[in-house]
Amino acid sequence: MFDQVDQFKSQYGKKVREGTVVIGRLHVYSRYVSGLAFVRSKALPRDVILKGNKNFERTLNNDIVAVELLPETEWEEEKCKEDAGDQGYDDCDTEVDLNNLPDGRPIKRWVRDSREDGGRNLEVHLAKAMGAPAEYRWGNKRPSGRVVKVIQRKQALTVVARLADGALGPREPIQDNRYYRFKVYNELFPHIAVYGRDIPSCLYEAIDKQMYILQLSTQPNGDFVWKDDRFPLAKVTRVVGSVESVESNTYAICTAHDIPMCDFSEEAYACVPDTFVIPDAEEMKRTHRRDLRSEEFVCSIDPSTARDLDDALSITALPGGYRVGVHIADVSHFVQPGSALDEEARTRATSVYLVDRVIPMLPRRLSEDYCSLHPGSDKLAFSAIFQFDHHANLKGEWFGKSLIRNRCRLSYDDAQRIIDGDDAVLDTLDYGDARDAQELVSLKARTATSVRTLFELATKLRSASIKRGRVTISSAKISFHFEDAMNATHPIGFDIKRQIEANWLVEEFMLLANARVAEKIIEYSPDQGLLRTHPSPPQRTFVALKRILSRAGIDLTGRSSHAYQQVTDKICDHPLRDELSALMKYGLTLAKYVANGDTGLGTTSRRHFALALEWYTHFTSPIRRYADIIVHRQLLCALEIESIVKGSRGSRAHPVEPGSVEVSDLQTRPFFTPTVEMMNIVEECNAKKLLARNVSDASSALFLCQYYKSLRALWGSTSGGKPFIPRVEVTVLRTISNKLFTLYVKELAVEVEINTQSKSQRFLQVDPDSEGGQTNGEDEAKSPQQQAQPNDPANAEGRTAKSQGNDNLSVIWANHPETGENVVEVIEPLAGLTAILTIKRVRGYEEPDLIVDPPWERHEERMAIPTSIV
């Protein structure tokens, strides 16, 4: 891969030391054609803005670049700081004391940490090595700059693309010496130039009907070849498939979001043992693994189609209360730090869930066999055992490695039937290898008792969490049905799924385990702690949401989590329940991972706003999240440090002093990760988690398009020639600018973004006098930390609504059928419209689209989308 580090050092060393040239990673804003990018580094106090493609020409998203700062006269004044660092704990919430545990005990740093990151973060490492200033004096200004050097390319040599719209005229022949533009499915990428001679002639006839793999052309030094400084040059090397096929579209979606569909490397597979052997008693004793097979009656509750079962529960009635076990697959036993498997899991960071498949973070032998807590098998686990009184007050806890046996597997629907008193479902459950009639009777009875008792306790925990201010938003989600579930290509039906009580039965205990593990890690290894934080909504977001909710007769009384929960309570019985629930997501920031010891966070609270928790992490899904594997390792280290502090080295006469525990003395030292390296890990996990979510959403949208096409074909064969006009009722969720607004289709539980400049829409134009609601020209230059960027993995704030006064925009409809005059219509949040469902390929792959009806056609007959076509 192209790498110019040595040349850069000699060419720009002086300017780097002076601070006039800075080093960072380039992030294209939203789409390459936006002409806006940012350069970011942990060594810089804020992002550097690159305005206009000329200031970052011949560069690609994620490149490591050197940026020369423009004169300060071209910098912008930093806007009001109310959104950055304003945690919003007015009203009901209180700020968190970062130096004390919730019970008031001071947090002590027992371990002497290393501040070295091993050079993995090149932009920081290189700046430090070249003597860049430790502090940049930019005042309250946001610097602008231009790229002067690409130091390292991060882009792969191949991309997935299709012929760009308008690149070839109808019946126009392809010429060898002319180049043709290809559109890459990743919108952060520029168009690609391909000469006619580099397109195989056998592809000419259907050139615009296929997706292709393009091989980027390179120079002798390894860098890419550019055409007119605008387009990378490439050759067509392979056909992916038809632009209509599920497989091709899925491949395009994953590639566009940097999700690997390839298999694991041979080196990673070599780390997976050929067989899984339960450790003997001596090994169990040596590793302090506790045998819970007879002590805990363990059950699992998961989606019916799940193969990677990474959590299970147990409950035992005690005098005065209960003992509850939260048992999590012991993935860290199999994934050793620094191994090829660990590196690949870190790169993937998360399993990706598509409609028709799962792209696993770990090889399937681990994710679906050795680690998965299947019923009837002995499995290694990391368990958290909690003692409660009858009022659900926590009275004690224990964490440790364990050996368990899952006695019964249930789906959420199975558990719900038991909660509802339907014991007939007990005869249909999976009890593993149990066959003896008497044993089955006992298993069924204990399963029913366990589920109902867990539900009773979970109800009390949920009630207590809501009282403390936890925000619970119920959302609807489309789920597809297939004729053959093992060959899910064309859906034959769908339904809309909503959370049921069995979902939050499991959720309550997972939240409990995550919160208690976070506090244990913070108590004994605070700086290294990987936390899941959720910043409170910025003031401008709160104001916008409050204004829109008022249209529905709902008052958002403040910015505390208590106030938001009061709103969600009111939404439950509202006629616009689903629409308002979808809207509420835009009123919250995106949760993110942080390293607790990251000095760049300053005194910013690590609190989780929506959960109303001081400390929170992810511990319960290590099969599908790399962050959870790290947390397992951190918990092991914390437990050993606790034993040192409280055990043989710690006593009243000779207490262990903070900072006196050496990492090299720990038995768990291979699991210890320095704070600086933890900062790199959380950044990678945040980026991949956002990409994975976008891919899951895009997959769902793709299968809705497949269902639409099947419905259209069925209509064509049965309607007697009537036109296919799937008109649906829609609700305006929000206006994003005078160019964009979002519509919600309740019967499909889908959101569709409408571009007012789209040629497919029937309105003539946007009223130039429209204020455009929630953004303006200045907003276009806000940094990724300040503005929502669903397509930018660098964005850590996510789905935040922007607000600048008015929420409305106006469109102009031409030629009213009765008056012949133009009609101006105000598009405002929560307004009801109708629209025709169709398909678009703006990003290349298929997505649902809506063609908004003019006002005079909204009385036309609607077409209820059938939930089944068989």
Automatic annotation (TrEMBL):
PANTHER family for this protein: DIS3-LIKE EXONUCLEASE 2, RIBONUCLEASE
GO MF annotation: an example: RNA binding
Annotated region (Disordered), positions in chain: 761-806
Residue stretches making up the RNB domain: 289-641
Biased composition range(s): Low complexity: 784-796
Biological process, per Gene Ontology: mRNA catabolic process
Any one of the GO CC terms: P-body
A matching Pfam family: RNB
Phylogenetic lineage: Eukaryota, Discoba, Euglenozoa, Kinetoplastea, Metakinetoplastina
Organism of this sequence: Trypanosoma congolense (strain IL3000)
UniProt-recorded name of the protein: Uncharacterized protein TCIL3000_11_8840
Family: Belongs to the RNR ribonuclease family.
